[in-house]
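hey team, just a heads up i'm posting the complex here instead of the shared drive bc the drive is being weird again. everything in one block, sequence lines first with there labels, then the predicted structure for the whole assembly after. its two chains so it's a bit long, scroll down
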Amino acid sequence: MSREKLEKLGLHLPLFPTTSVGSFPKPDYLLKARADFNKGKITREQLTELERKATAFWIEKQEKLGVDVLVDGEQYRGDMVAYFAERMPGFTEGGLVRSYGNRYYHKPIITGEVQWPGPVTVEWWKYAQSLTNKPVKGMLTGAYTIMDWSFNEFYPGRKATAMALAGVIRKEVEALIAAGCKIIQIDEPALSVRPEELAIATEAVEKTTHGLNAYFITHACYGAFEYIYPGMLNLAVDNFDLEMSNSDLALLELFRRHPFTKDISFGVVDVHSHVIEDVPAVRKRIEQALTILPKEGVWVDPDCGLKTRTIEEAIDKLRVCVEAARAFRN
Amino acid sequence: MSSKAVSKSGVILAHTGSYPRIGDALELQVLRRTIAASDRGERTAADLLDAENEMTRRAIADQVRTGVDLLTDGQIRWYDPISHLAGKLEGVKIKGLLRFFDTNTYFRQPVLTALPKRKTQLIVEDYAFARNALGHLPTPPEKAGKLAIKPVLTGPYTLAKFSLSENGSSSALETRAMAYAEALAAEITALAEAGADFIQVDEPAIIKYPNDWKTFEQALAPLLKARDRARAAGRRLELALYVYFHDCAPLYEKLVALPVDVVGIDFTYNPKLLDAVATAGSPKPLGLGLIDGRNTKLEDPATVARQIERVLPKIAGGRAYLGPSSGLEYLPRDRAYAKLELLNKIRAALNS
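-- predicted structure starts here --
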């Protein structure tokens, strides 16, 4: 359990801390502004102003709902890998490729040595943190996932690529810590796609976080965890943020067979459904978690980022998380 | 290592399956825009079909221009490799998204409410359209009459492996796989009747889940019977089994021993696979997935040509199908085109 670590960092969180995974939906005015910016109709400064407005909106919403550990909502990001790749020397923007159905994105291409361009997320974190007294998470995409979701034309192999990226992400982690950030989430949704490469992902996370003084969370989702559990517990993080409700809590069976030894951010609402779960249903999910997991290590949040939901749905889903978690504190 | 001269004519340039349905240029975004407008209720089903046809013609034209011998329709109409087929079967409903192997793409998962049954054609109309489109394209004189469209089907085991069951009768993997197999066997019969003489069946899941071999092999049997019936009726038909997205080395010898006509393999997951194939040889023609369909980096034609020279003499009949390791929809369009261009350059570099 890492509550001692949190206390040492000066973070006095209640039992069942509530948080969210990272992204929130963008308001219509911001979607329009992003399109206008891409067409050259507005300046970067005008776009940034609206991104700050949307960030402030989400910080205020989270505070009002009573969320304990906040996120900035990623109002200034598009794709979670492309956002970093667009800013790092060594990457070239690739053409459009399909994600699924009718959704496409510009998949980055590594064409040279990847380098840290200086702080990428720090100013956004500082801005979000300035709006609240509650802790705001630093939000990064992990080296293994950036490697896996990019084309590589430069490094000799996947491990070399991941390790080079880990060195870059570590510098961003250091910059966040220097700015005062105490909880840093490093998203690794690609963690389970090649179980035989878990050692590479583990080494990359170790290189990213080793010896640094922060509480580290990693988020992974929609993967085949049965192939990497319990080995994934060797990742150098304090907390796994896992999508649990989408699989009807199937992962609990794995935890029953081999104890889960980290803190967990337990996903209790499905982010791909328009349906708002009711509080009793979510409380039941937490109760099921507590049959296996010690209460001191359980955080409560949605399965994944909420950016694909409407603003109203995202707020309602967060509200359910908060109300369900509070019931257990009493 | 010295290599014997190999016959260039033994190397057939074959596309493996999908092709990007979008490009950065505005005219290459017609399908995306039409689907989006259709979702808003601003376009009709006929508009959507037109857009699919347009991008299918472009995919075929790119293959002709780059010198491919055995073409596909680019699977432009496919939402994904699983639901496009399963969703047309009776007894199947399509539900949430799941990641497709280690790609950062997703498929919609079929859920069986009953044993799946084929009530209508799956890709026969797509095949007929592609063949017609190919016939209307200008073809280089030396290739006249030699180009063909290859229909591609996802195999029964892979469909079953990625399906869920809501129905007791289809809860066993073997039962699901056999039901899909019967549906696909009927489709193979229909494709053969429509003129297809080379059909590719993709079974990527078996090299990831080798413990299911028995189920996989049993589910292949109805497809082979359909092929044999077509042959008995006087049709020419070859059935090719393609595997990718994992290392096939542990199963290689079992794969090439199967009674299919061609086995297509992905060389990108194991650098030692080429040595294994060069050593073991193959009792049947191979699909050589030596061009990485998942990475933009372009291979050196001379290097790949030397690789082919090593394995081709060990392949029965000295015949091989050179192509990308997988479909090309994982690449941006310009890179997918460049990968196809490579195929001809590699063949030209043989024996040089």
